[in-house]
From TrEMBL, chains A, C:
InterPro entries: Class-I_Pyr_Nuc-Dis_Oxidored, FAD/NAD-bd_sf, FAD/NAD-binding_dom, FAD/NAD-linked_Rdtase_dimer_sf, Lipoamide_DH, Pyr_nuc-diS_OxRdtase, Pyr_nucl-diS_OxRdtase_dimer, Pyr_OxRdtase_I_AS. This is Dihydrolipoyl dehydrogenase. It catalyses: N(6)-[(R)-dihydrolipoyl]-L-lysyl-[protein] + NAD(+) = N(6)-[(R)-lipoyl]-L-lysyl-[protein] + NADH + H(+). The lineage of its organism: Archaea, Methanobacteriati, Methanobacteriota, Stenosarchaea group, Halobacteria. PROSITE patterns: PYRIDINE_REDOX_1 (PS00076). GO terms for biological process: 2-oxoglutarate metabolic process. NCBIfam families: lipoamide_DH. Gene3D superfamilies: 3.30.390.30, FAD/NAD(P)-binding domain (3.50.50.60). Binds 1 FAD per subunit. Keywords: Disulfide bond, FAD, Flavoprotein, NAD, Oxidoreductase, Redox-active center. PANTHER family: DIHYDROLIPOYL DEHYDROGENASE, DISULFIDE OXIDOREDUCTASE. Residues 11-333 form the FAD/NAD(P)-binding domain. Its EC number is 1.8.1.4.
Length: 472, 86, 472
């Protein structure tokens, strides 16, 4: 301990106030632990400030304009004008409302909030450097610490973020005007969500992707539905190309890509969004002081209680590895807090759902057919096309499907894949089904409201049993 | 008005309820003796001990009728079984 | 048997091609029964032709226009024009597509389709009168018959439907232009859905209702959310008044209502929609020939296999009583078909969900708190306000809540009430939960995708256990 320094103590120290951290802190305090949350930037972390929330806000605002523009077949004629500054202001209002909410939820739960950057001193102490010059620092001793420092965008060599031309998603979400031409590097979920937003807002969007389709990791028939719709929106895809270099031009920038034959292609653009993945943030923590190792991906390894190699230190959320999703972070935060409070908690969830808020949405949970095969099951699948669902037609949607995967013997639900309207909400039922150990018959034997998209879930389960009424 | 009928009597999934019907087991009998959610094995165990099951096929309709009576009456039985579990 | 008449035989005869009937017929054929479906009018029945589907189509089409008009705070400026004839054409296209779909699903399943009105001759024979003059009739003998003749709108004395001024919902759904002033008698779900549509399309809507609030049967705090929004849309409510008489005027009609003190109020309108409930259709069946009795509400009584007093005759859907909902009709159709095929099927569903597609939507399943009390439970409730849900804010929604009801001892889920965006889809998870015998912890222990409205379901379950993170 440094002379003249005051060391205060806390039972539970949480480092980082994103979804992983704030949930851990609130739950810890609810369980009676004296809890301190250290955040260096903004409550809510990436998710609320620069991720999930602002992206979904822009998606829904651009949808209102786009839907109205596309509704002539429904007898609605509109030529909406978009005021991007106004849209940004609204989106920022949503973010502010939610981040303030997180702050006050923490306070109401009795969490001590400390602003600053926490670095490990040893496995029972951190030093918190307060932001700004001459703000000083303080030492904090803890019984348990939960590391929830999140992740940051990966970069492409020679494409350093410059706040002007080469943008991470965070900057793209904060643009005050719609770029005339936007180049997007990476067709993962963030690249696809933002390409869709800007295409709907009127930008000419070009996407370059090293692999050979959009949304790597998703099954082909799912990616195809989203790619087709994106192409209808005018998005231009270029697969098998890697961003190689760029330079400024009179009108903006010119980006060079190379394919595997070293063929160079050039794209002019006003801005370039680089969205090629995210990597854990640990360099803010001085992990070397406690000799806590990260793996080859920079992830802090944890056990099923989210405990690191140190008994007293947990790690949750993006910093603890894939899937880098806010709800996984929250669920881990909850487990770590309970474990720190001495409960026999474990991250033993059977499935973590995931959604992509493209047009249409994608949502998945549990195993795909081929994952089920690889896991030794004899999978049976059932599929219901969205175009055969009455509710979908009433909202003028036709593309997509609901697919369920079960094992042929016992018909236990193993997984589901949905691409279509409200996929992100429909997946909830199937997530509960997997956690409950539901069989296909249980889903098919549950009455689903008419007319809803959830009837397609019902029908997919019936189809897997050869009992579909509304499909052949 | 969509005045929805309220049922919620047995904590057993549809697949288990169907099995009970197939085996001629009155699932509310199990509800009275089981702790928590009724499983397929509870039903099978009951089918082996339940004299009910020996009257098989024909009893299905009686079973169904009995079940219906229960479902129409408020669930005094499930409530008392819930208390019995404590 | 009449001389010169040909009697053909069928194992399963289904009377009426609405959701109850067509599902029964398809399932019956799938189970190997020689199945015949008799429909006198249009495949899909009330639901597809004059109910669920056209109403939801108009709701979503009017929403597109309304949402765009209301999006200034989101930075979207639009002044959509509605071409009602175009909207009607689109809606009719949706209906046609779905009714053709039902017809071809029946054919593909091997169902014999017969057009005409079926009347009972005895408990093993019907006579089918073919529509149109001189089309003749035929006798059909059956082993099992499933009656699925549906329901029709109730009338108010002196307010006979005249196809011009006094309209049932069916006619209101077929209007070619938006009435300037619409008077709606009845604030049940059909009245409220259609009032909302026409208010959004620019009509001046006045509602009169005998009882003292909208949506009788729903809890006050749910009705209040919908009433408030409807009032914001400019809908004028007049409770405690009964429609008494009407006359034509130069500009349209004048309707008189009376309250319990006999005070008369007059309303001028262009059209008057009467939506005061529905009653079973049985007079088309010549039930007297088999002496099948209906109850005091005109409903054909059935047991839990949907069997009537006659071993060979089942009744499903609206004609078999409340709740008069399409998905209840389908589920009963399925049970009856299975029972006719000799399976030990029973309508033993633990809960039937219901949705109202107002703005915002309502959806319920299982018991309310007071119903749970009345049933002898000691209920515990958990509630999550929509305004604390991130996804809701990103779609610019703030009103409503998710409420779950469980028993305090074992925490088994007993029911749920939702008012808010996508309520009709969110209820699916809770329906599955009730059927599965889920406990609150099962829902709270299932990871829900962020950011989605389904997180409010998760949070309500946690709240009921005193473990909410996102509410106080
Ligand atoms: C554009 C975009 C869209 C996304 N959309 C979705 C989506 O729809 N759904 C979804 O589930 N996920 C989405 N994500 C991912 C989601 O944002 C992350 O999975 C989530 O934020 C991870 O939460 P976390 O708590 O682990 O970390 P973060 O949210 O990254 O929070 C970490 C916090 O720790 C702070 N911190 C770091 N080091 C220190 C230190 N030493 N001391 C003090 N504080 C520190 C940071 O300032 C930060 O606030 C999206 C991400 C992006 C970029
Ligand atoms: C405006 C409106 C909106 C609605 N919205 C919803 C909703 O959102 N969700 C919901 O679940 N429900 C809704 N409903 C209710 C739903 O339409 C009914 O519950 C459903 O149609 C009942 O199905 P059914 O098969 O019992 O009867 P019906 O759909 O009424 O079908 C009965 C069929 O039988 C035929 N028929 C009658 N007698 C004979 C005979 N003797 N011989 C041959 N054919 C005969 C009729 O021509 C008709 O086609 C709505 C209803 C209305 C009016």
């Amino acid at each position: 301990m440094v002379v003249g320094d005051v060391t205060t103590g806390t039972e539970l120290l949480v480092i980082g106030g994103g979804p992983g951290g704030y949930v851990a802190a609130i739950r810890g305090a609810q369980l009676g632990l004296d809890t301190t949350l250290v955040e260096r930037d903004a409550y809510g972390g990436t998710c609320l400030n620069h991720g999930c929330i602002p992206s979904k806000a822009l998606i829904s605002a651009s949808d209102v304009a786009h839907d109205a523009r596309q509704a002539e077949s429904m007898g609605v004629f509109a030529d909406p004008a978009v005021d991007m500054a106004g849209m940004t202001e609204w989106k920022d209002g949503v973010v502010t409302r939610l981040t303030r909410g997180v702050e006050s939820l923490c306070k109401n739960a009795g969490v001590n909030l400390v602003e600053g950057t926490a670095e490990f001193v040893d496995d029972g102490t951190v030093r918190v450097a307060h932001g700004g010059e001459g703000q000083g620092s303080e030492s904090l001793s803890f019984e348990h610490a939960i590391v929830a420092t999140g992740s940051r965008p990966m970069t492409v060599p020679d494409f350093e973020f410059d706040g002007e031309h080469i943008l991470p998603s965070k900057d793209a979400l904060a643009l005050e005007s719609v770029p005339e031409k936007l180049l997007v590097v990476g067709a993962g979920y963030i690249g696809m969500e933002l390409s869709t937003v800007f295409a709907k807002l009127g930008a000419e969007v070009t996407v370059v992707e090293m692999l050979d389709d959009v949304l790597p990791g998703y099954e082909d028939d799912i990616a195809a539905v989203v790619r087709d719709r994106a192409e209808e929106l005018g998005i231009d895809f270029n697969f098998g190309e890697a961003a190689d270099d760029w330079n400024e031009t009179d009108e903006g920038i010119r980006v060079q890509t190379v394919d595997e034959d070293d063929t160079v292609t050039e794209y002019n653009a006003e801005k370039c969004l680089v969205a090629v993945g995210r990597e854990p943030v640990t360099e803010t923590l001085a992990l070397e002081n406690i000799d806590l190792q990260t793996d080859e991906n920079g992830v802090i390894p944890t056990d099923d209680q989210c405990r690191t190699a140190f008994e007293s230190v947990f790690a949750v959320g993006d910093v603890a590895g894939e899937p880098m999703l806010a709800h996984k972070a929250m669920a881990e935060g909850e487990v770590a807090a309970r474990a720190a409070a001495g409960e026999p908690a474990a991250f033993d969830h059977q499935a973590i759902p995931a959604a992509v808020f493209t047009d249409p949405e994608i949502a998945t949970v549990g195993m795909t057919e081929s994952e089920a095969e690889a896991a030794g099951f004899d999978p049976v699948i059932g599929q219901m096309p969205i175009r055969a669902n009455g509710r979908a037609l009433t909202v003028n949607e036709k593309e997509g499907f609901v697919r369920v995967v079960a094992d042929a013997d016992e018909e236990f639900l193993l997984g589901a894949q949905i691409v279509g309207p409200e996929a992100s909400e429909l997946i909830a039922e199937l997530g509960l089904g997997i956690e409950m150990g539901a069989r296909l018959e249980d889903i098919a034997g549950t009455i689903h409201t008419h007319p809803t998209l959830s009837e397609a879930v019902h029908e997919a389960a019936a189809a897997a049993r050869g009992e579909a009424v509304h499909t052949r | 008005e969509p005045a929805v009928t309220q049922r919620v009597q047995v904590a057993a999934p549809p697949s288990v309820r169907r099995l009970a019907r197939e085996l001629g087991v009155d699932i509310s009998n199990i509800a009275d003796s089981s702790l928590g959610r009724i499983t397929e094995s509870d039903v099978r165990a009951h089918a082996n001990t339940d004299s009910y099951s020996s009257t098989q096929e024909q009893s299905n309709q009686q079973t169904a009728a009995a079940e219906r009576q229960k479902q129409q009456a408020p669930s005094t039985q499930s409530v008392s079984s819930v208390q019995a579990r404590e």
